[in-house]
User: Fold these one by one.
Assistant:
Number 1:
Amino acid sequence: MNAIPATETIQTAAPTHIAISGVSKTFETRTGTVHALQNINLNIRKGEFVSVLGPSGCGKSTLMMLLAGLTSVKLGRIMVGDKHIDGPNADAGIVFQQDVLLEWRTAIDNILLQAEIRKADMTQARERARQLLKMVSLQDFETAYPKELSGGMRQRISICRALLHKPPLLLMDEPFGALDAMTRDQLQIDLLRLCADNEMTVFFITHSIQEAIFLSDRVVVMSPRPGRIERIIDIDLPRPRRLAMRETAKFTAYTRDLTAIFKSLGVFREEY
Ligand code: ADP
Ligand code: MG
């Protein structure tokens, strides 16, 4: 009998966490109808890290806003757990490209905002905030104000804020898009560490091919507008992920395949 590695057994057995069925989205604008998403079907398992990769304007943010329940689903259906999403999904943690920290609150008070809004136990919340700060190596910056922090530090704070209430689902919209390359590498590692320590499903939007491969269990490739799912690629790289994996033959093969898909979609044009 073939032995199946335990991790694989768990992953295939994990129940569906997100079910997106037949979702399309159009926007009526002054200049006409914009078809942002067309017939999106996607199931994500509990605990899975899924990246959505696609060119600017293909509907990635729209899809995340639908999952967050911040935009209404008119055509199709989205289930998160056993909840039909038809209004704001308060269980999800959300991180955007901009950190949206409050400048007049310290780092820890920005994180605790989440607990205040949810009327959670503040003693427990403070303890959890400190643990999270430690996990992203910011334990010495608890009382710093946002203006005293670098872009990468600020974004770490906003990730801690999103995770304070232990959300089962983390939605991230190009969270590292505004950071320099080295900071971005570190934040990817920090995020993976947080994922290893907090059981959650991650829906991660990026337009970086390497970032998607490095972080994910699966990469969803979207076509230019109207956004459709073009391909779904399983990333069969071991965890914990290490930066050196980016130089392996397997990683570069994924990069090559994904680049070829975008080339075939007309996203990359190399003639000049
Ligand atoms: P991405 O995040 O992949 O760059 P978006 O989801 O932001 O793409 O946008 C997809 C398309 O939908 C774009 O053409 C954008 O202009 C349009 N769009 C997004 N939100 C709105 C809105 N609220 N009103 C009108 N058009 C929108
Ligand atoms: Mg976007």
Note: The chain has two domains: 1-55+75-91+168-272, 101-166.
Number 2:
Amino acid sequence: MCELNNFDEYYRIAEELVLYAGKIIEDGINSRKNIKSKGIDWDLVTEYDRKIEDKLIKQLLIQFPSHKFIGEETVAKEGCLPQLTNDPTWIIDPIDGTTNFVHRFPHTCISLALLVNKKVEIGIIYNPLMGQFFSARRHCGAFLNGKSIKTSDMRDISQSLVAMEPWLAKDPQYLASVYSRMHALVQGTHGIRSLGTAALTLCYVAMGAVEAYHIEGIDAWDVAAGKLIIEEAGGVVIDTDGGELDLMTPKVIAACNQQIAQQLVDLIKKADCEILHKNLN
Ligand code: IPD
Ligand code: CA
């Protein structure tokens, strides 16, 4: 049941702040940016990522001084991932799809989630460039620009459109497995898509634009808000091995329903086995 409680106030303030942060993305998209890499040359950050994260944390702290924060850029600066506790915790990705933002590819967003007792209670993902404001509160449904959204009712992976991201193949350790999984998806589905923003792609599962999404090597801030938005739209988000998702080290299969999720788990397992056999022979 959707209860009226403190979450109304948390949601109201979060929505206001995310809309404001959207203006920073709009201002920045066509501006000259100070682009840096975070250790690996293709993991980019700009002054806009930091500006948005600082603004969100500062304003949320004024309203909720006892709340905790896990923000992508703060973690990058401090070099360590804080432990998730039962305390109210805001998980922030100030710009998800920073590479898109740098290249002016208009799929980029702010992702903000509130967790209490380690459960996501509020999820907001906003792409100001496409005017898409996705939101969810636990047990209250999922919305795009205030209108209720639902996942696709497809039950057959071979008839599905599936999103995945091959960038992990840049690391030689994962190259064979990424290409094998990609090959299995190309052969076993209607088609694959790759957007370069995990948070928004999760929303595309929620709104029924793709049936499923698979990604690994990402972080809690890429997934927290989108997980709730998908679940509230009728879908599921599980671990690649078919078990429960660990939000702090996510290996993601997001799907419109359990059947598609399971078929994707099986397809990936088969692809991984094929590499193993090739390596043994
Ligand atoms: C990235 C995006 C991308 C995913 C990367 C993330 P960022 O987030 O979500 O889709 O494949 O792993 O790091 O760096 O743009 O916030
Ligand atoms: Ca980011």
Note: The chain is about 40% helix and 25% strand.
